[in-house]
Amino acid sequence: MKFLKYLIILIVISCGKDSSENIDSKLLEIDSQQSNISDTENSNVELSPLDLAKSKGYSVFVCNTPSYPVKPEPNSVSNGYQYHIFGWQLDEGYKSKCVNIYEGVSGADKQLIEEVIYEATDRLGQIIPINITAVFGGVSDLNDVCKKWDALKLTNGGCFELGPPESNYFLAAAGVDAENIHNGGQGEISQAVFRDLERGKKIIYHEIFHIHQNSHKYYFEESQSFGWNEEQINSLRDSETAVPMLGPIWIEEGGAEFAAIYLSDEKGWIDYKKSMIEYLDEARSVIADAAIRSDIVSLKDYENGKVIGKLESSSNPSGAAREKAYQYSAGSIAHIFAIEGKYTTLDAILIDYYKDLAENERDYVGEGYKYSFTKNWGISLENFYKEFDEFMLKPRAEQISFLNLE
C-alpha cells in the first residue's frame, strides 16, 4: 500500500471567502437573553468589543505569541453555551498566517509552507489566525520549540519529540481546540513534509484544511462569535462510540485528503486522478481482505476513532485486524462519489457543510452533523452509506468511470 506511507500522522487536538469580512457591529448583537459575565458587567460605561477584549488581556495579534495571558472568560453564556468574541476578530488579526521556523528550517522551506497556506486560505476563507511551527528533527532546539508551542496550545508542559536528523522525522498535524482557540489555529510540520517535493504541499494543504474544518465547528455566522458547550465537548471526547462534533472521522480525514489532492491538482502540485485511483485501490483492498474473514466493511464503521482502532486491531470481532486507513481512502472517494453522483457540489461539501455545523449542533445536540450532511450533501447520511457501500462492491472499471478518473 504505497500511498499509505504518505498519510498524515495526526496529532489531533484532536472557510468561505465571505467569512473573512471585517467584524462589524453585529458582534454586539448576541441574543439579549444571554447573561453577560464580563468583568465590566457592573460598570456604567459600555465598552466597545475591542476595549472589552483588551480588558481581558488582549493587545494585538503577534505571531508565535499567546493572544491572551490566560484563557479569557466568555462574553456571554446561554443554555450551557459560552460565546466569545476575540480581539483578533476586531483588528483583522484573524487574517494572520504565521510560519514560525526553527534551526534547520530554511527560508525556502518557510516560503513553500507559506505558499500553501496563502493558496488554501484564499480558496477556503479564513476566520482564525494561523500559527504553524516548522521544525527540523535533531537540529531545532527542542526546548525553545516546546516553550513557545506549549504557550500557544496550553499543554501544561507537553510537547512532541524530535528524532535525529537522519531519521527524516515526520510530523504533520493541525487543528483548533476549544481550550486554546483564543490563540488561533495551530499546526506542526517537520522536514519530512516540507522537503518532500512530490507530496509535501498536498500534506500541508491537508493540515490547513483541518484548521478550516475545526474553526467552523465553533463559529456562529449570525453573531460572528465562537461558542461551544464544554459539557458536550467532554462527553464526546470520553465516548467510546459517539460521532465527533465535526462529523464522522471519514469526513474529517477523507475530506481533508480529498480537498488537499483536488485543490493541489489545480495548482499543478499533485496528480489528482492518479492519487485517487491509488486510494480507490487501497479501499478495495480493505474490503477484499476483510471479506476473506466474513468481515463486511461499511463506511459507517469509520465514524468514531476508538471504533476504528478496534477494527484495525486484534480486537476486531472477526479475530484479525482490518487493513488500515479506510477512513482516508474510502473517505476521500466518498467525496468524489457524492459530487459525480450529482448529490452535491464541491463548495457545499468543502465549505458549507462546516459552516452549518455550529448552529445545527446547538439545535440538535449530538446530531448536528447529520442535519448539516443532509442539507449540504443532498442525501441523508444513512442513505448515503447504503448507496456508497453498494458502489464500493462494483467492478473497478465501472467505479473509475463513474468517478471520472479515466
For this entry, give a set of tags:
406 residues; alpha+beta; 3 domains; 43% helix
What does this structure look like?
The protein is an alpha+beta fold and 406 residues long. The chain has three domains: 2-17 and 92-216, no CATH class; 23-90, no CATH class; 240-402. Helix content is 43%, strand content 9%. The protein has 16 helices and nine strands. It has helices spanning 49-55, 87-90, 107-124, 142-153, 191-194, 200-216, 230-238, 249-266, 272-291, 305-311, 326-340, 346-355, 357-363, 368-377, 381-391, 396-402, and strands at residues 35-36, 76-78, 81-84, 97-101, 130-135, 172-175, 185-190, 219-220, 225-228. The strands form two sheets. A five-stranded antiparallel sheet has the order 1-2-3-9-8. A four-stranded mixed sheet has the order 4-5-7-6, sandwiched between helices. Helix 3 packs across helix 6 (200-216), helix 12 (346-355) packs antiparallel against helix 14 (368-377) and helix 13 (357-363) crosses helix 14. The radius of gyration is 21 Å and the shape is globular.
Number of DSSP-assigned strands: 9
Low-confidence region ranges: 1-44
Order of helices and strands: EHEEHEHEHEEHHEEHHHHHHHHHH
- Discrete helix count: 16
Overall spatial form? globular
Report the β-strand fraction as a percent range: 5-15%
**Percentage of residues assigned to helices:** 40-55%
> How many angstroms separate the termini?
21 Å
Structural class: alpha+beta
Oligomer state equals single chain
Largest sheet: 5 strands, antiparallel
Strand order of the largest sheet: 1-2-3-9-8
Mean pLDDT, all residues: 90
Number of domains: 3
User: Any idea what the radius of gyration is?
Assistant: 21 Å
